[in-house]
Amino acid sequence: MTQNKKYAVALAVAIAIYIIMDSKKTPGKVTYAQIQDQLFKYLAIGWETFIPKAYWDFAQYTIGYGEGWNWDKNRKVQAGDVIDEPTARRWFMKSAEQYFNYANNAIKVPVTENQMVALTSLTYNIGPGSLAKGTGIRGSQLIKDLNAGKPLAQVAKGFDRYTTAYDTRTKVRKVLPGLIRRRNSEKALFLKA
């Protein structure tokens, strides 16, 4: 083998290694299996504190890691429900996969793993919604801008639209500092290479 061929082979191997090691930064179709651990650490541990007893959270009873669905009884969480941490984690992972799928089905362009985690986190919080009604992730301007190929900095501004919560008991919508922090974190993760 000539010296030039050796260099060419070495360069090809180096490029292949770089591509493999850089795969988390390369946009493409992201699978739930690729991000489930990162999603649990970011969302469940980072934003959704484990709470074993059901409590009222603006629009529904919530338990565990921000879960509104009792997966064991196939119903909404109700006052009086109590769970342990392993159950909360199992329920979270089931819900997180659903919200990943809602976001993933709305996205028509390649995204990075970080972008997918940020978008799944947003979807977990605002819901899947309806494209026709312009609600949730499906109807969000953020997804429309992303799919239209607009600059990522412009797309990321869409996170700022989701900083309020409507309390179904008091009928009051208000800006929540916790949602502002969460959206800023999601936006930063979305923009991170």
How is this fold's topology laid out?
Layout: H1 3-21, H2 32-45, E1 51-56, E2 61-64, E3 69-70, E4 75-76, H3 85-106, H4 113-126, H5 141-147, H6 152-156, E5 164-167, E6 172-175, H7 177-191
Antiparallel strand pairs: 1-2, 3-4, 5-6
Describe this structure in words.
With 193 residues, the chain is mainly alpha-helical. The protein has a single domain, classed as Orthogonal Bundle (Lysozyme), CATH 1.10.530.40. 50% of the residues lie in helices and 11% in strands. The chain is built from 7 helices and 6 strands, in the order ααββββααααββα. The chain has helices at 3-21, 32-45, 85-106, 113-126, 141-147, 152-156, 177-191; strands spanning 51-56, 61-64, 69-70, 75-76, 164-167, 172-175. It has a two-stranded antiparallel ribbon. It has a two-stranded antiparallel ribbon with strand order 3-4. Strands 5-6 form a two-stranded antiparallel sheet. Strand 5 and strand 6 form a beta hairpin. Helix 2 crosses helix 3, helix 3 (85-106) crosses helix 4 (113-126) and helix 4 runs antiparallel to helix 7. The two termini are 39 Å apart. Mean pLDDT is 85; it is low at 6-26.
Overall morphology: globular
Residues in β-strands, percent: 5-15%
Radius of gyration: 20 Å
Strands of the widest sheet, in order across it, are 1-2
**CATH-scheme architecture:** Orthogonal Bundle
Strands, count:
6
Unreliable parts? 6-26
Helix content: 40-55%
